[in-house]
């Protein structure tokens, strides 16, 4: 088995120095440009020299290749992956490939995983694999046909490389740019032959990200950076309790702040519209609002968790049933039980939510790091009282999201449109800017959950029964995704638990869905952000009860799951699983599947005499099908590990009498560089179709660290985040 | 009321509220957008720029406090250390979402301008005020070491 490790793709110092000299050239030739609607419209309006055989590709007479991305680039490397897949089949010159965001158009750009245009579920590469290979291959076929006709030679005698068509017999060649007019006149072929993977020149190689140069010199354009003539900035004062509404407000003090232009009420609160962020902020600080709390959530999260604990003892709905676990556990020779508690979590992307809206009586144009384009388009249209076709969306780079910008209510977009409407819908561009406090207080959290697990072992200490009860709010209930809720089971509440991979003769997974005015949402890796923790921490407890090595115990239950078993074995092997560790150190393992990608991680931790935990090293193995870009895959595993580790060490949104107790990064702590472990990533070679890497790396790190803490100290972790005593 | 200072090497006078945080003066008055807003409380480092060569959090620094001083933003980076940092960031493919990276580059540059051979502990000290939610930290560390090597070479 050949394996790619992160170490292998890291350059030597000499290679680095050589490449450093060519950086300027790279920055000039590779880079994403946000072209804006005017330029895009002009191009689509088809100069005859532009060859656009489908909705994903445009080749200019200058040989430039523009790939149109239907997925947002929010850090996960989607633009690079998308462009790679298309450019591979086109045989484009990577130095001339650019990426542009697609407009909102469900007919052309729907996500094949959910039927509307949006990014989520680590779906971009799975979506692109056949669609964009075909788009590239058809473009190439038409360029070949154009050259063959021009040169009066059989098309079979032509070859392509780096954006040039060659005819070996006559030693003729032509750049793609010179063929665009002729190719554009040809019919698009119905069928096309795709490359044999052994001929890939970009896929599987170290292709540099298209967005990196602009993200290193400050020129990348995020929504924060949109500046339109006459643009105003709005900050919105939202209710302090979820579900509260405006009773009355006094704009006098806010309006007196220099630079404040207008104070307007919208369904979500009261907005201060000003000439600058600073004026809007001071205006909002001065604004007096009286809130109606009648229908607000006034409970504390601790009271809610008490209710969850009670519900875990009540009958619940079945999410998975194999055999009959309850009597099997009752009659088992040995039993194990544990419960795990998970808090609400904020996504806290680095770019606080923001959107720019230019609204008139007949049109609405939006600029945002938009993750749910056609949902946001429909919600914006409804808010503005316009037809969706009159709402256009410019998708910019998103400064992180982790799921936050993909919400069916389009909260921040609808707020911005509501403010523009209340302002007068006069075409004045308005930027709605959230502050970090707005973000931490703003809801749409990863739900809080309670998990109760029980297992039965027979006299030979073999695992014969598994019962898993999950209690928490539904993400999908009450919105357009409600159709996904079958027999009362929201799949996002139980994925990773109902789909438990271990071979156990009796399995019972149950769900009790709770309600609250606290709005909830998918958070990076969705259900597996808690289910994988519960399953992998508990299977470790069961292994211990069975007197087995936790790696070997898992492996022996995965004989029927070769891909999961392979990542488990690879991680254990690379980590030196059975090697000795000094006192005070421990090693823990966990494995999971999310969005059809398999990830196993081994964590090594040090716990000092005061109980402080340091995660020293994480070895990660991933199987995501054919690796499109090994370096991006490694980056997503590294980042997923850091994101997940911050959450289990520190992450918690808590409510006191309905009010969120955290405000900013001082009391909603996230991982910092001094807490980042050394990470090694090993990619399993595969011929399977590619699957996603943006989320799956997050799931195993929490339980791997919890299991390592047990190995070091003999103490199990049942409460998330880890108790204060064990914080670094 | 106006405040005069040197911005990226050019004498600048901004007619703005002297209490306005430098971040917003640079972004909204000067129109330089590379410096980002992340927390408004000097907790995340996205707004890091240099004042007289020191890395500072511009989101909590009043405009008036830089009167007569040298302010450098990501747009004005020119030093050998800065170029080495940016080259290393590209070579090691550090950014993901990229939003925090101007601040990361500014903090790393300030570190290398003073310390051309930083240890891991030096890097922790200089960089732990810069949050990256994509957790590109391993690559930031590797890129700082690589940039230090390239400056020496």
What's a concise summary of this model?
The complex is a heterodimer of chains A (728) and B (153). With 728 residues, chain A is α+β, with helices and mostly antiparallel strands.
Structural description of this entry:
The complex is a heterodimer of chains A (728) and B (153). Chain A has three domains: 31-216, 2-Layer Sandwich (Aldehyde Oxidoreductase, domain 4), CATH 3.30.365; 223-295 and 353-433, Aldehyde oxidase/xanthine dehydrogenase, molybdopterin binding domain (Aldehyde Oxidoreductase, domain 4, 2-Layer Sandwich), CATH 3.30.365.10; 301-345 and 444-726, Aldehyde Oxidoreductase, domain 4. Chain A is 31% helix and 23% strand. In chain A, strands 11-12-9-19-16-17-18 form a seven-stranded mixed beta sheet, with helices on both faces. In chain A, strands 1-28-25-24-23 form a five-stranded mixed beta sheet. In chain A, strand 17 (364-368), helix 14 (373-384) and strand 18 (391-395) form a beta-alpha-beta unit. Chain A is globular, with a radius of gyration of 27 Å. In chain B, helix 2 crosses helix 3. Chains A and B meet through helix 2, helix 3, helix 9 and helix 21 of A and helix 1, helix 2, helix 3, helix 4 and helix 5 of B.
């Amino acid at each position: 088995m050949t394996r790619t490790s992160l170490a292998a793709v890291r350059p030597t110092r000499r290679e680095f120095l050589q490449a450093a000299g060519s950086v300027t050239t790279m920055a000039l030739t590779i880079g994403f440009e946000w072209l804006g609607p005017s330029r895009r419209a002009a191009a689509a309006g088809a100069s005859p020299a532009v060859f656009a055989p489908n909705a994903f590709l445009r080749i200019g007479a200058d040989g430039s290749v523009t790939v149109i991305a239907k997925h947002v680039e929010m850090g996960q490397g989607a633009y690079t992956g998308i462009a790679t897949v298309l450019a591979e089949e086109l045989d484009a010159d990577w130095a001339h490939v650019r990426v542009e965001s697609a407009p909102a158009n469900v007919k052309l750009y729907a996500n094949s995983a959910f039927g509307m245009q949006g990014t989520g579920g680590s779906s971009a590469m799975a979506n692109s694999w056949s669609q964009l290979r075909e788009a590239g291959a058809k473009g190439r076929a038409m360029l070949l046909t154009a050259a063959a006709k021009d040169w009066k030679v059989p098309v079979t005698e032509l070859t392509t490389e780096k954006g040039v068509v060659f005819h070996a017999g006559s030693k003729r060649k032509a750049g793609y740019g010179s063929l665009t007019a002729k190719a554009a006149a040809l019919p698009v072929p119905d069928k096309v032959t795709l490359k044999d993977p052994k001929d890939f020149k970009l896929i599987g190689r170290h292709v540099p990200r298209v967005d990196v140069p602009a993200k290193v010199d400050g020129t990348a354009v995020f929504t924060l950076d949109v500046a339109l003539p006459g643009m105003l900035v709005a900050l919105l004062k939202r209710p302090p309790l979820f579900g509260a509404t405006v009773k009355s407000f006094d704009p006098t003090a806010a309006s007196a702040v220099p630079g404040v232009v207008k104070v307007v009420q919208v369904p979500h609160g009261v907005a201060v519209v000003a000439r600058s962020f600073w004026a809007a902020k001071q205006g909002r600080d001065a604004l007096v609002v009286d809130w109606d709390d009648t229908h607000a959530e006034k409970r504390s999260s601790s009271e809610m968790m008490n209710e969850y604990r009670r519900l875990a003892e009540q009958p619940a709905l079945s999410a998975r049933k194999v055999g009959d676990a309850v009597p099997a556990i009752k009659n088992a020779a040995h039993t194990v039980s544990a419960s795990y508690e998970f808090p609400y979590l904020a996504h806290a992307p680095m770019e606080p939510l923001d959107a720019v809206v230019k609204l008139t009586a007949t049109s609405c144009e939006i600029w945002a790091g938009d993750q749910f384009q056609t949902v946001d388009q429909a919600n914006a249209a409804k808010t503005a009282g316009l037809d969706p076709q009159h709402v256009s969306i410019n998708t910019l780079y998103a400064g992180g999201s982790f799921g936050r910008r993909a919400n069916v209510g389009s909260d921040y977009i609808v707020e911005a449109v509501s403010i523009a409407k209340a302002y007068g819908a006069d075409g004045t561009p308005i930027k709605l800017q959230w502050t970090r406090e707005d973000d931490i207080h703003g809801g749409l959290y990863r739900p809080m959950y309670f998990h109760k697990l029980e297992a039965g072992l027979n006299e030979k200490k073999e695992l014969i029964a598994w019962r898993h009860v999950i209690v928490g709010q539904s993400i999908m209930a009450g919105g357009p995704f409600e159709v996904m809720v079958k027999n009362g089971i929201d799949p996002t509440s139980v994925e990773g638990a109902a789909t438990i991979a271990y071979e156990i003769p009796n399995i019972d997974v149950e769900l009790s869905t709770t309600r609250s005015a606290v709005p909830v949402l998918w958070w990076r890796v969705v259900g597996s952000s808690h289910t994988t923790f519960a399953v992998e921490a508990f299977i470790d407890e069961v292994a211990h009860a069975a007197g087995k090595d936790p790696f070997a115990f898992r492996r022996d239950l995965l004989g029927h799951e070769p891909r999961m078993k392979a990542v488990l074995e690879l991680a254990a092997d690379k980590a030196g699983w059975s090697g000795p560790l000094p006192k005070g150190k421990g090693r823990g393992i966990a494995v999971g599947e999310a969005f059809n990608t398999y990830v196993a991680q081994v964590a090594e931790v040090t716990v000092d005499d005061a109980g402080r935990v340091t995660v020293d090293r994480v070895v990660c193995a991933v199987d995501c099908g054919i690796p499109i870009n090994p370096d991006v895959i490694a980056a997503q595993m590294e980042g997923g590990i850091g994101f997940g580790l911050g959450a289990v060490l520190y992450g918690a949104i808590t409510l006191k009498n309905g009010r969120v107790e955290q405000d900013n990064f001082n009391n909603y702590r996230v991982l910092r560089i001094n807490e980042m472990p050394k990470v090694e990533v090993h990619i399993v070679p595969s011929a399977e179709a590619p699957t996603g890497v943006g989320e799956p790396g997050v799931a195993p790190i929490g339980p791997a660290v919890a299991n390592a803490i047990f190995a070091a100290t003999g103490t199990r972790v049942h409460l998330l985040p880890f108790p204060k005593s064990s914080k670094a | 009321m106006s405040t005069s200072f040197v911005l990226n090497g050019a004498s600048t006078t901004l007619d703005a509220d002297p209490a306005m945080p430098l971040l917003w003066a640079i972004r909204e008055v000067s129109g330089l957008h590379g410096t980002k807003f992340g927390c408004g409380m000097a907790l995340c480092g996205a707004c890091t720029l240099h004042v007289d060569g020191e890395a500072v959090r511009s989101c909590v620094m009043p405009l008036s406090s830089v009167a007569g001083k040298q302010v450098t933003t990501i747009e004005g980076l020119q030093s050998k250390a800065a170029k080495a940092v940016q080259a290393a960031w590209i070579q090691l493919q550090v950014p993901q979402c990229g939003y925090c990276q101007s601040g990361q580059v500014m903090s790393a540059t300030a570190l290398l301008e003073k310390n051309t051979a930083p240890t891991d502990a030096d890097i922790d000290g200089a960089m732990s005020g810069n949050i990256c939610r994509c957790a590109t930290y391993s690559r930031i560390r590797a890129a700082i070491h690589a940039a230090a090597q390239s400056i020496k070479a």
